[in-house]
Design brief:
With about 180 residues, the protein is α/β, with parallel strands linked by helices. The chain contains six helices and nine strands.
Length: about 180
């Protein structure tokens, strides 16, 4: 996992103008872990950090679940599990996602405005291709209701994100800054 260098941390924390950072990297490289560390740095600097993180749950080294964490309160709810034939919910990419938890995530995102640093982990096919999922995050970003924002986007969707937000800077976990 790419560490947050002191110079990157300072750049992020000193960014007085609105800044949008796209955090990307291959599956399992540590994008969420990177965001967790960035939240800690933001808080240590005395700034507000808000938004959502998708925290993986593992069993014997296999990813079996995803919890959604409200960064502002620390509360977590079960967002998804590996699909089975009996699951109810939104099915995407081998996962079954709880619609009520997605609604909760959207409520969290709608409540954010002009905060110091916003995190959205993650925006994926539900948001970019189907207009669902954490759609409130797309609105928040399009309306520039943040000072600085970090969004996690899968590499295969980076072009979608760049076309929506051409001013965004990209942090590729495991690679140099772009």
């Amino acid at each position: 996992m790419q560490e947050i260098s002191p110079s990157l941390a300072r750049t992020i924390l000193d960014n007085a103008s609105k800044g949008l950072w796209i955090v990307t990297g291959s599956s399992g490289v540590g994008k969420t872990s990177w965001c967790v560390k960035a939240v800690e740095l933001v808080r240590q600097a005395g700034l507000f950090a808000g938004g959502i993180l998708c925290i993986a749950e593992f069993d014997d080294g296999r990813k079996v679940g995803i919890d959604l964490r409200n960064i502002g309160t620390g509360e977590q709810r079960k967002l998804g599990t590996r699909q089975s034939s009996t699951d109810n919910g939104i099915r995407v990419g081998g996962w079954c996602l709880d619609e009520k938890v997605i609604d909760w995530g959207n409520k969290i995102l709608r409540a954010l405005s002009n905060r110091d640093v916003v995190f959205i982990d993650e925006l994926g096919p539900l948001e970019f291709e189907l207009g669902g999922g954490f759609h409130a995050g797309l609105s928040l970003l399009s309306e520039s209701r943040y000072r600085t924002a970090f969004i996690v986007v899968r590499p295969k969707l980076i072009d979608n994100a760049r076309s929506r937000w051409p001013h965004a800077r990209v942090i590729e976990i495991g690679e140099k800054l772009v």
